[in-house]
Amino acid sequence: MPNPRCHFLILLMKFVSIICFCHYIMPISGEDETNAVKKVDVGIILDLETNVAKVMHTCILLALEDYHAASRSAIRIVPHFRDSKKDDVEAASAAISLLKDVKVQAIFGPQMSTQTDFVIDIAKRAEVPIISPATSPLLTVKEHPYFIRAALPSSSQTKAIAAIVSRFDWREVVVIYEDSPYGTGIVPHLSDALLENSTLVSYRSVISPSANDDQILRELYKLNTMQTRIFIVHLQPSLASRLFLKAEEAGMMSDGYAWIITDVLTSLLDSVNRSVIESSMQGVLGIKPYVPRSNELTNFNKRWRRRFRQEYPDMDTVELNVYGLWAYDGVTALAKAVEKVAGTATPKSNKVDTRDNSTDLDALGTSELGSLLIDSMQNITLKTGLSGDFRIINGELQPSPYQIVNIIGKGERSIGFWTETDGISYKLKMNGKTAKSNNKKLGTIFWPGESNIVPRGWEIPTTGKKLRIGVPVKGGLEQFIKVETDPKTKAVTATGFCADVFIEVIQSLPYAVPYEFIPFRMPDSHTNPNYDHLVYKISSKEYDAVVGDVTISESRSKNVDFALPFTESGISAVVPVKDDERKNAWIFLKPLQKELWITTGAFFVFIGFVVWVLEHRVNEEFRGPKRKQVGMIFWFSFSTLVFAHKERVTSNLTRFVVIVWAFVVLVLTSSYTASLTSMLTVQQLQPTITDLNDLIKNGEYVGYQEGSFVKDILKRMRFDSTKLRNYSTLEEYNAALSRGSKNEGVGAIVDELPYLRLFLNKYCGKYIMIGPTYKTAGFGFAFPKGSPLVPDVSRAVLKVMEGEFMNNIIQKWFGNETDCPEKDGMATTSSLTLDSFKGLFLIAGVSASSALLIFFLIFLYQNREILATDDSIWQKLSAIAKAFDDEKDKPNSKSENPGEGNESQTTTPFAASAASPEIFPNLPSQSPETRTASPPDEGFSTTEPGTPLEETITEANEER
Question: Which CATH number does the domain 467-565+786-812 belong to among 3.40.190.10, 3.30.565.10, 3.30.160.620, 2.60.40.10?
Fold first, then answer.
């Protein structure tokens, strides 16, 4: 019999349980309670038949559980899952059902871009936000205001792919993509990113999702006949698996090939059969969004595995991927946004249209919570997201670093990272930025074919086709290129300087390049080929390259790519030389140009005039008859030329002018002597014309090589086209220059330096090159635009030019260039020009003018009483001129100034007492002829005036 006390305890426990249950259930059912839990319905549309959707489904369930466990809010997110069954219409139908029947406030999904495109418009009418992991860049947030992208668009990886391509200097790639919105959406963005790094998409291979294995194999064989060996694959995992199996069968997973796969395939690599990875994808490079490791992620991965096995017990090979992590973070962000705005609006829809003729879309109604929810979701951040820094800005998930992996063995190995700010690096810092010390580097890569050598990126097509090399057939100058055709075998051979360089360059390449020469001649065999037409043959795909004396020019480079030049550059002119100038009777005038002779003569006269003005009033040598004074002006200045002037000057201003002028004369005479000595002692080849502009002024005829672009340059230099004549051989050059312009020849030949060097080497001493030299790029080998041969050929050209081969080949075809040393010297005039002495003449002119100005100012000040009179201007000028012409009183003559020297003061009384008969009555009178002159004073004058004694005696005699 049971114990009554135990029976009572059992009844008490049941009663308490009932009370607790009622307490728990009543707030949920009672909407008017203050502590009632608010339910927010959220729709989730996934393709539950796919492995990716199953991974996302499990992650979403865990995300809601974690949110409800961590949140103290009264908000409860109620998920409603729908299966779109890989069909756009099914996805749209599921969205309508969720909006109409369930009244969801937000929809997560669909996962496919085409499905999302349908659902966005439906949700926009109901004003319900769509949070979708669709990656197509064709779906833009700006055009769809209720669309939130919770995954990275496929366009965000294009710069990372372009950086990898640029890292290995690949210039052309082939893009293989799926014929679907998923595949086509990335192509424009990828092409632009590659073009920014100077890489071209040489071919776009489109593969249908329904293509069979034979169709895929035929496409791969087509790709294998092309030169490009770099392939970028943007396919879904199922289609990519079949592609790589057939690539292995076609021999395209061997040495020399490079394959890059995009993020979808790399992130879902676990869904690819292991046997396909091990047999057909070894050495492939891939990129995927980088997910940083963390303890939270490790713990979550364990929980996810347990939950996934519970949900899908028959699936064991599926691994957690970034799309599942984005789903977890996206739903978590959605729950936080709902929690933020649910308190301000009731999660319900407005009244719907119930008319009989209304459609399902009309019956959707609008969500009061949707507009607030979309504003909250457009800018939200989860700093502790499982996928990393989960940030949605303006409705777009912001890019994270991309991880670069190399597929080896059964899986992948990380070899580096890429970020938009820092580019490629081997390691990442803790903050997600690249490590500066390891920037621009990648880890060790094993390429297809188990090779560690970076693929070159292109190969000669495997069809056995040879490169068609166009070579010009010239009527002359065969030292550069000569084409011969065997009459029996029709085999074409090319010889000459350009052909030998090309053959050596091809042999220097690290791989074999089969080629054949194809002659290019104009319809009229008597004329040389037009090289512009020859280069155009590459653009029209008649030739694969052009070899010859083809000059690199701006107009030609628009249509083709040139390798580095292999000759010197420049355009110049050759003219005949004059006879030996040393036999010329007037060679002594040659050292100075006419302008310098005239300027020098003018300064001689000017300096002589200045000296005369300064010395006329104080120096007896510069006085006297007018003829004597004019002669003194010319004599004094020109005598300084040989420093033969004997006249002494007394004025300090004159001494200053003469010192400066003597320095100028010294420089002039020294320069003249040096130039004349050079002309008389050194054999010089003087040109008949010293500048190309002289040809235009004189109306001379000018010759050029037929078919050359030099004709266009001469026209741009304003040469008259009627004055241009073309020639083909060196002999024709010689004949035309010998005849001259007046005898149906030319005054000069204008051509490129290599031809002129050869011409001068043959006619040494007869002609000379004149300047200036107009720069050109030299000869180069031409290839089609974007040809992968160009960089390798350019490097080979540098290698050939740095070796001994170039010297040998130059001597072989052009001879020893040291045999004619005069040809290398550019002819220039040896006459001295006025420009070289402008500074000297300026100094002399300023010095003389300054002295002259100071003299006149002092003179006018001394005669200021004349200017102060009331006379007319003409009378004043006459008085000033008379005062200037009068000899200035000297201190040792009869003095009127109180400031005379002591010697004058003592001499004058003595002279007066000696000469005056009143004082000395007994002395006989003497004539001036019998007087004895006193010794002359020291000074600069050669003839001194009379002494004071003589003047006194003379005056006394005159008074008698």
Answer: 3.40.190.10
